[in-house]
Each structure stands twice: as structure tokens, then as C-alpha cells.
Amino acid sequence: MDGFTVAIDGPAAAGKGTVSRAVAEHFGFAHLDTGLLYRAVGAKVLEGMSAEEAALTLVAHDLENDQLRTNAVAEAASKAAAIPAVRAALVDFQRSFAMRAGGAVLDGRDIGTVICPDAQVKLFVTATSEVRAKRRFAELTAKGFDVTFDDVLADVEARDARDSTRTEAPLKPAPDAVEMDTSTMDISAAVARAIELIGARLGA
Fold first, then answer.
1. How far, in Å, are 32, 33, 94, 141 from residue 148 at the CA level?
2. Is there a domain that residue 131 lies in?
């Protein structure tokens, strides 16, 4: 199957990454967490490189950095993602991935609106900021990071504001995206719903 693309967007810690990985495995599609591209750029910025240079010199190995999930990298990534030159440098890579043979699932902030506006399936996975902060707090503390819930909530809300109000490719649902609120939904139910929607489109 060539060029069947699933675009999954949404804010931080809404569950889109988990859903994306699960549906990619279910259907045998390739998966790209596009947020990792921006996190890798953010990590390079924290090491002293300019955001644009970091985006232009990004290689696959940069996505394997164990520190890409820290709050500091997330904040740097969100700031870098608001820079038009950074986004432009990463667009071609994402679009090429989306058109690969065998189908592809991409998750991020602007996949359905900017990167793959013609994707066959578009999902927008969201949840309340408090629920998302609880998930991120649990994830970080489980990994041994010394953080407080209030700090994590503040980071989540700041990222939401920055991602939603930026001039270049703001975070928003595509007009034809199916919205999935996972605030009161467990991950198995979210995955099942996504599989149902994708399967229906494949069958059509």
C-alpha cells in the first residue's frame, strides 16, 4: 500500500504518541513521532547551537538521545518549533516519510493541517491540561526526575499557549479531523477507537 497516511495531532501528554505507536503496529504501518525531531533540535539548542543550524544538521542518531523527554528539552523544542526556518527545514523529511510504501502514521502538532493535509485519516487527540499534567508528572517521576506537579502543570499550560498561538502552523484540529478526548478514556479504549476509524477508511 503506497501513500496511506494517518495524521494524529494533539497537545502534549494527550496520548497521541501511545495511540500512534499502537495503531502503526496493528496495521503494520511505519511510525514517526515528529515531536522527537523538534526535541532533538531543542537538545542541540541547549548545547549551544542555533535552532536553525540544529534543524539543518539533524541526523537519525540525534533522535536516540535519552534526554529528549526532559522538561528542559520540551520547552526548548516548543520554542524552536515556533521558528519558521526550523519548521521549513523539517517539513520535507516528514512529508517524504508520510508517502513511504506500506503506509505511515505521523503524530505531532501540525500533521493534519500543514504536513499532510491530504492524509486519509486525521485524528486530534486531546485531554484537559490537568489530566495531561498528571500523566507527564507520573512519567517523569517514574524516570527519576525531581519535579513537582505544579511545575509540570505550568509547563503544560505554557506549551499549550505557545503552540496554539504561534504564527507558523499553530496547534489546532484540521477541519476534517476526528477529535478524541482521552480525559476519561483509558488507553485501550482510545486505541480501539483509532483502529476502528482507520479500519473503516481502509475498507472504504
1. 30, 26, 34, 9
2. yes
Residue 180 domain flag: yes
Please state, in angstroms and rounded to a whole number, the distance separating the CA atoms of residues 60 and 58: 7
pTM: 0.85
The number of domains in the chain is 1
For residue 152, give the 3-state DSSP assignment: helix
Tell me the C-alpha distance between 155 and 159, whole Å: 6
pLDDT tens string 150-175: 999 999 999 899 889 988 888 999 99
Contact 108, 34 (CB under 8 A): yes
Phi, psi at 194, each rounded to 5°: -65, -45
Strand arrangement, sheet containing 178-181: 30-33, 104-108, 5-9, 121-126, 178-181
Question: What phi and psi, each to the nearest 5 degrees, are found at residue 33?
Answer: -85, 95
Q: What is the pLDDT of residues 173-195, one digit of tens each?
A: 999 999 999 999 999 999 999 99
The residue segments making up the domain with residue 15 are 5-191
Domain of residue 129, CATH code:
3.40.50.300
